Amino acid sequence: MTIKEAIYFRHTVRKYLDKPLGPSVVENLNKRIQEANEKYGVQIKLVTNDNGAIWSMMRMFVAKNVKNYLVLAGPDRPDLETDLGFAGADIALYAQTLGLNSWWIGETYRGRHVRQDGIVTKGVIIVGYGMEQGKPHKSKTIEAVSQYDGDAPEWFTEGVIAALCAPTAMNRQNFMITGKSRAVHIEYAESRWSRIDLGIVKYHFEMGAGKENFNWI
After folding, report:
1. pLDDT-based confidence at 108, cuts 50/70/90?
2. pTM of the predicted model over 0.85
3. Of the candidates 68, 107, 125, 187, which lies 20 to 30 Å from 193 by C-alpha distance?
4. CA distances from 20 to 13, 24, 107 (A)
5. What is the fold, at CATH topology level, of the domain defined by 142-210?
6. Measured between alpha carbons, how far is 155 from 172 in angstroms, rounded to an integer?
7. What b/e readout covers 44-71, taking b as 16+ CB neighbours within 10 angstroms?
8. Quick one: three-class SS letters along the chain?
9. Fold (topology level) of 3-128
10. Mutual angle of helices 194-209 and 80-97, in 10-degree steps
11. What is the per-residue pLDDT across 27-70, written as a single tens digit (0 to 9) for each?
């Protein structure tokens, strides 16, 4: 499975099998994380075999066997959240290619438990072997989230479709993608999680459209 294919297979999963991540999976994930950290200037970390990331009430009623997660963290700077969303999307989709499932959590996690000294933590991504594969979220239409000056080329449409598959806070999909020739711009309605969502959506659009076909403006 490629990253682009993983976009359409990845859905939120909250219940997992009591199955540890194998050594090769951990090694591959950590390699991908290291590459993302170096490329985007973030400090994402994989934690395995630890059920303390989310509150006990959530583990009792919503989640099951949540024991592996990515801590989304990095140095405090203006673009940190967008870069964490972008890098986190890359790692979550890569995890899908390894046969794992995932669940983005931006608020209902135990901040003190995952906090790392000297850096800012902005959320976690649960990873593991899902008890099921999840279901597609309710989505807006292409017309509701995009505009193109003229007839939209295939790459633009494919990019928007991939963006609509991106996990966003409360599934609001509060973005607008506009294009003209090879120039593409994205705007996101301001909210608490909009900058992380912006990074996630931008990554999905790039993978769907192909970075060689356009430029962000």
Report:
1. confident
2. yes
3. 68
4. 16, 12, 25
5. NADH Oxidase (3.40.109)
6. 24
7. bbbbeeeebbbeeebbeeebebbbbbbb
8. CCHHHHHHHCCECCEECCCCCCHHHHHHHHHHHHHHHHHHCCCCEEECCCCCCCCHHHHHHCCECCCCEEEEEECCCCCHHHHHHHHHHHHHHHHHHCCCEEEEECCCCCHHHHCCCCCEEEEEEEEECECCCCCCCCCCCHHHHEEECCCCCHHHHHHHHHHHCCCCHHHCCCEEEEEECCEEEEEECCCCCHHHHHHHHHHHHHHHHCHHHCEEC
9. NADH Oxidase (3.40.109)
10. 50
11. 999 999 999 999 999 999 999 999 888 866 676 668 899 999 99
The token pair at 101 is 């499932």
Name beta bridge partners: 188. 175
Q: Enter the tokens of residue 139.
A: 């989505």
- Looking at the chain, which residues constitute the CATH 3.40.109.30 domain(s)? 142-210
Q: Which two tokens stand for residue 184?
A: 């593409």
